[in-house]
């Protein structure tokens, strides 16, 4: 991912938090000479050896999985809030742009066994059911329902490289920076407001 120095995020804790909060990603690999991508939850975890990994699952019917045997190198893409930035918000002439936060994770993928896949499902469901009034638990699902779990491949990605971009108008002076935040807040667009919130955290 091309990222000018000013927009690089090299704060490990911030990146980990981002991955945990924006875990619906895009898994990309090459299968039969063609690039394939699947939109799925991909969770950041620490494995038994203390290594940072990503884990998730895809359908056994998904042809993308065939490519894991040929080439185990994959890319997982995660995006956060993003918004158009109008140059009319500056006190000088310039071009419009786009503010966004994104993380690319490169690594080596391996398929895990059925028992590990079920453990991954338990963690995933528990995470997203935490605030439910009547939370679903994998442990309580019937044998018939759990047969569906036989239709997935659980996987783990051993992380080899992380590239993180946080493009939030860092190149603007304080006056223009504050004005961008103000204009974003006026839009009533949830994405734009989320970008304004992230910008406010970066510069008080």
UniProtKB/TrEMBL annotation:
Matching Pfam families: FMN_bind_2
Transmembrane domains' residue ranges: none
SUPFAM superfamilies for the chain: FMN-binding split barrel
Name of protein: FMN-binding negative transcriptional regulator
Lineage: superkingdom: Bacteria
Signal peptide (UniProt feature, chain positions): none
Alphabetical list of Gene3D superfamilies matching this protein: Electron Transport, Fmn-binding Protein, Chain A
InterPro entries recorded: Split_barrel_FMN-bd, TR_PAI2-type
Organism: Flavobacterium resistens
């Amino acid at each position: 991912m091309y990222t000018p120095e000013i927009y690089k995020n090299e704060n490990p804790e911030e990146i980990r938090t981002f991955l945990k909060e924006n875990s619906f990603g895009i898994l990309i690999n090459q299968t039969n000479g063609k690039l394939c991508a699947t939109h799925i939850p991909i969770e950041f975890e620490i494995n038994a050896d203390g290594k940072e990994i990503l884990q998730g699952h895809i359908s056994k019917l998904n042809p993308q999985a065939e490519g894991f045997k040929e080439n185990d190198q994959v890319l997982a893409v995660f995006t956060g809030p993003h918004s158009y930035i109008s140059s009319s918000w500056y006190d000088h002439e310039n071009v419009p742009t786009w503010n966004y936060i994104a993380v690319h994770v490169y690594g080596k993928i391996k398929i895990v066994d059925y028992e590990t896949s079920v453990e991954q499902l338990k963690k995933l469901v528990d995470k997203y059911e935490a605030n439910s009034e009547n939370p679903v638990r994998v442990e309580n699902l019937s044998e018939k329902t759990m047969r569906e779990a036989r239709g997935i491949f659980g996987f783990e990605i051993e992380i080899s490289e992380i590239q993180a971009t946080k493009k939030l108008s860092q190149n603007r002076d304080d006056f223009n920076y504050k004005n961008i935040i103000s204009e974003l807040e006026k839009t009533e667009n949830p994405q734009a407001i989320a970008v304004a919130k992230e910008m406010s955290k970066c510069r008080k």
